[in-house]
Amino acid sequence: MYCTGYIVDSQSFPFVSKHVPVLSTDGAWQPDYVYTANDIRGLVTYANERGIRVMSLLVGNHSEYLQNVRMKLLEDVVPIH
Known about the structure:
Layout: E1 2-6, H1 22-27, H2 37-49, E2 53-57, H3 64-77
């Protein structure tokens, strides 16, 4: 059995990225409304113990927030002259 879930939604980005932490610090509804790697790990373990395989989806086009900050992130990585 599989369970598929999005870890971001249209208006927020609650997943704490180790590589781009600003996504959740600026994108979560509130600072404590986030999913850490440990949260995801715990969910996967819980599901696996019950015979369920979790497939997390992180799809940028489902997040209006991510689309709005994409240019800002690119400017931070590659300065636009």
